[in-house]
Amino acid sequence: MSGQQIQPVESRDLAPAPYQEGPPPADWGSEQESASEPKGPSLGRYLAAINRFKWLILLLTALGAGLGVAATRFITPEYEVQATVLLEQGTAVNGQNRGPIQAEELLKASGWQDLMRSFAVSDPVVNSLALFVQPARDADSTLFRSFRVSEQQSLRPGSYVLKVNGPRYVLATAEGLEVEQGAVGDSIGARIGFVWQPTLEALGNRDEIGFSVQTPREASIALIKKLQMNLVDGSSFLSISLRGSNAQRTATTLNAWVEQFVATATALKKKNVTSVAAILEGQREYAARDLAAAESALESFRVRTVTEPTERQTIQPGIEMTNSPVFENYFRDKIQADAYQRDREALDRILEGARRGELITREAVLSVPNVNADPAAENLRSVLKDQAEREFALRQLRESYTDEFSKVKEAQAALTALRTVTVPAALEAYLGQLRQREQSLTASIARSSRDLRTIPTRTIEEQRLKRQVEVSEEMYKSLNLKAAEAKLAEAATIPDVSILDGAVPPLRPTRNTAPVLILACTGAMLLLGILLAIVLDQTDRRFRYPEQVTGDLGLYVLGAVPVVSAKGRRSKSDQAAQVVEAFRTVRMNVRYAADPRRPLTMTITSPGPGDGKSLVSSNLALSFAESGARTLLIDGDIRRGELAKTFNIPSKPGLVEYLDGTALIAEVLHPVEAHPNLTVLPGGARRRKAPELLATPRLTQLVSQMAAEYDVVIIDSPPLGAGFDAYALATATGNMALVMRVGITDRKMAEAKMAVVDTLPVRVMGAILNGIELKGAYQYYSYYQEYEAKDEPTERLPEGTRKTTALPSGRS
């Protein structure tokens, strides 16, 4: 049997409880569970994780405190010095400059900070104070005041040691590599870019002097990072602060910095004003030349186009032409040409119809406008009139004579000749005249169109030249005024910045960061430990909390079996009582979770080995037996089952022998002498093909037969991960309970196996939590010890004396 050992359960510890059927329990489904259980990580789980990994958290916290204490040894005192610079914000009042003409301020308020951090200010300070060299001892700082960097020789930065031996010296690197040697008083380090010539008196009695050198630009960058500035919006005061390990040297550096800043700003403004004045003068001269060129171009254009048509309607006598008839002629000719074209097309259609045999009527021809009014159409109108008269005369003759009459024939022949020859010829002649007029007008329109198309181009060009003159004139006026102002401003340049407060070296360090550093390291490691504990808890694949059963698996918790430990605060008897009450609770929940209309048959299994399913099966069977129910416990773990050893009964023959038909049912049932209501059916002999017997109908027949003879049938099955044995046994019983052990059961394995169970005709009654400690998330699964069931001591009476019991009044 895997898992915990069976707890001894005495009959006096388990008070008999009536075995009764009842109505089916409430819905144990996931919907009810999800309504009562909170979703997502809870504070209780976080606290449980912190408690579980408390030693890891304490170790990391102690490590953080140690690191903080160690780090404080490398912290040097830090001094902060401050200076204030006054910025010039201009003399304009309400947008009007009421002061003398002068140059505007060099930069806006935000630009002064960038200038303060520029290398134009920092490099001269670094070079003048030799801040690129750092002595190993602060007391040697005076020795390096004359230290400079050569501009001809490239500098070799690094750490060096100057060793003095009497009148001789040796310059070597920090690693001991000799660089140079010579007599004290000579220039030291000239080959590697040093300009340094200390005297023997300045060196004193020192034998060895250590120092480090970096490039001036690197020193400037490091110094700029330490510089802090504050400029309130709308204020004229720029506050500058600098931090360093030497108060006097830091104050000297900041004072030199602000002085260099003022000198640089003044020089830049002077240079800026002079440059602006020179640029404005050059621009003014260029604007004058541009204006003259623009006026000359406009004049030349007007002279060149004075004889060409324009679209101006009003003119000034003596300068431009009067109104040109080009517009009027163009549109008049265009209208006339369109009229000729329409009449010609209409007459062409009439003439085309005549060629097809249609009659040319006088009304159709006279409907064309030009035929009625054009003198050139007089012949056509005369012919049409003659045609109308002959048609009238023919009608009169036909009224008196027949068509065979000679006059009628002559009139008809003359009319036919007129219709077919004379009228088409007159119409054709007039059409020729219309075509000539149309062609003439089209040519005239084309010439006028070309002239008109050039008018917008000339007009646009004239307007462009006018605008160019106007722009050049405005530019010249503006630049002329600005150039005059720049000359006046150049004559009186006022600095934009001035030093208001200089830096004073403080007497004490600005702040002590050691406690803050220790607390920060301790707090950071504490938070890291808590975060690590939560992460380890979230990524833990083992079963730890009840909500992992109810939430992740959707199972109802049938009960929780506490672990019996010798290290606990409670005595063994108290822990045994807790175990007894736990199995009573499991027994009650199992009874009401099962179908009351059928005998209770159930399979107890677990996701993997070591979860304590055999322990739970045995004790649950004992609990049912002690309650008065006839209970059969079957060892279904035919691979590794050990129930025979637990109850001290023969292991063979058992379930295997019964299923293969080599043993009868009476031979495999073994009543337990210590528990009259309990019968155990062992697993039997170990065989490779024994699991195949669980898939035979004989197992189902066995469960049905035993359910008829016993009140409760419990099968202890192999783990779900061992094979199909547990599924076959659970299908035979129809009910299954899952044992999950805290810290042992693999949740992912349980989820995977329960997904398979969901496809089988098995009712999952719930989960039994095993091996819990009655604290943290499981503290509410314990029971009050003062309500433990105990036997009342029997009162001894003298021999021959009969004990009487007082009844309530009114009863006999």
Describe the structure.
With 812 residues, this protein is an alpha/beta fold. Among the domains are: 133-213; 326-491, no CATH class; 543-784, P-loop containing nucleotide triphosphate hydrolases (Rossmann fold). Helices cover 48% and strands 14% of the residues. It is built from 23 helices and 21 strands. The strands form five sheets. It has an eight-stranded mixed sheet, with helices on both faces. Strands 4-10-6-7-8 form a five-stranded antiparallel sheet, with no helix packed on it. Strand 20, helix 23 and strand 21 form a beta-alpha-beta unit. Helix 3 (54-72) runs antiparallel to helix 14 (514-538), helix 5 (119-129) packs across helix 7 (216-226) and helix 9 runs antiparallel to helix 13. The longest helix is centred in the middle third of the chain and has 86 residues, at 406-491. The radius of gyration is 60 Å and the shape is flat. Mean pLDDT is 77; it is low at 1-38, 91-99, 313-323 and 800-812.
Q: Into which percent range does the helicity of residues fall? A: 40-55%
* Uncertain stretches of 5 or more adjacent residues: 1-38, 91-99, 313-323, 800-812
| Annotated CATH homologous superfamily of the domain at 543-784 | P-loop containing nucleotide triphosphate hydrolases
Largest sheet: 8 strands, mixed
Number of strands: 21
CATH topology of the domain at 543-784: Rossmann fold
